[in-house]
Amino acid sequence: MTNILVCPDSYLGSSLDIITTMILRDLQDIGVNITVIPFVQQRIKLINGSLDDPEIFARHSLHVLETLLTVMQSDNKILFVDFFQPLLPLLHYYIDCKEISVKYGALFHGATFIPGDFFAEKLWMKPFEIGFVSLMDSIYVPSQYAAQFFPNVRNNVNVFPYGFCADNYQKNLDPENKYFDVVIPHRWASDKGADFYLEVIIAMPERRFVVSQLGIDSTVPGLGSICRKVKSMKNVIIIGEKSGPSYREALVHSRVVIAANKQELFGYGLREAIASGCIPVCMDWACYPECIPKDHLFASVEEAVELINLYADSYPTTYFSLPNTSFRPILEDFYGS
Questions:
Q1: pTM of the model as a whole
Q2: How far apart are CA 228 and CA 243, in angstroms?
Q3: Whole-angstrom Cα distance, residue 100 to residue 312?
Q4: Domains of the chain (ranges, CATH numbers)
Q5: Which pLDDT tens digit goes with each residue over 288-326?
């Protein structure tokens, strides 16, 4: 038997770093011998995703197909992490003709058929992705919110929280050691609610915001103007720029983290901030109601402003932590069955 994991090697500035690292660690802990096929062959700083470079995406897809043809034996279990593979139907045709036994699985961190997804407007991609999904024996998603949007195909969609360990983060609950009122750790992109965050910043000139550097220099029509306005605000500090803090420092020294992403299946940036000592205020949609108490959810800019003021002023009275989670249940379910 050959156990295979197809995953991003390393995407800088992305939760995929956390996902891949934890999966490999959990596989080692449960004693599964694994053949790893990295989808991305070099370290790439994630800004708008490798799909924006058709040469990179095509070459990596071909690499995965060629490697799978090389390593597969008589009995195989192949788990794909995040990226769909447009050439999988061709691989399936090959193994079907050769009568090779294969079990397919996939962990989804996004999908074109989930509302608000970054790649939802790429119409060419959806048929490939639905074809990829239709071949899966097991699909794993981290929230009920995500599960409801998957096409009606033969496989089971399994809901398991993804792995996250709060113990890996320095926590600061000292109000005297909080230099920022609000942290926005999400990259500046259309699927991350950039327009909403700008409205909140404008509505709270007396509050000090620290925001992500990722995508802040975007020139994408519409998004670029939002980012320029954010950079011009006197109450905004940008992570990593000039005298700005590092990413981890921004989380540790902020009172409140806001999350209003248009597409969110698990919320790694949010969880990192909570683990570092931030109190969350989140939009009442996507995966947030599944993990965040109702009195921390908002439905409008006005409600977000009200909650930020409440929790920033009363900090750390209402702070709470989220439980640690692991990929082990997913890995045991797939490779152990």
A1: 0.91
A2: 19
A3: 58
A4: 2-164+326-336 (3.40.50.2000), 166-313 (3.40.50.2000)
A5: 999 999 999 999 999 999 999 999 999 999 999 999 999
